[in-house]
Amino acid sequence: MESNAVLLESKSSPINLLNEMHQLRLLGHLCDVTVSVEYQGVRAEFVAHKAVLAATSKFFKEVFLNEKGMDGPRTNVFLNEVQVADFASFLEFVYTAKVEVEEDRVQRMLEIAEKLKCLDLSETCFQLKKQMLESVLLELQNFSESQNSEEESATQPSILLESKAAAVAEADQADCPLDPPDSPVDRPSSGTSPEMPATKSKEKM
Predict the structure, then answer these.
(1) SS3 8
(2) Which terms in the Gene Ontology molecular function aspect does this entry carry (predicted)?
């Protein structure tokens, strides 16, 4: 009777493998490639493992698969126009899947990821830039809303003052009504007294 197949899977094995390869690189053990980086007169050399670089970078994969012969115990690769700090961060990322950089270096890390054809680093930089942009837009939106609320609160007292002034003016007009200009009181008399209309009406009665 055949038994059912079961899956043996380790969640920690990929992380342990990366950590062990990282330690081997830092100690210089089993390294079979030297990468020389130069930028504006600043030059540095980094030792690494071909298998790790080829697995994480299509650029290095093409270089290693197309090389015809070994230059001794290690292969030498020269990179121009790549800053030393950026390549050091690139190596740390491909060996540990994480690296800490300043915000203004994210764009440069994206550029080196595209230059070396490292898809994982490129996607990571792109996602981080997207988050940074969203946070900046959110801050601008909050700032704009706070400015609008301050402007509204500043205009409300002036509106209240204007409405109060209008109410006072209306009250004054109600207390002291102006006589129309054609009223008989204001008309100049032509020898007759103001009481004349009243006496005429009495006589008619």
Answers:
(1) coil
(2) DNA-binding transcription factor activity, RNA polymerase II-specific; RNA polymerase II cis-regulatory region sequence-specific DNA binding
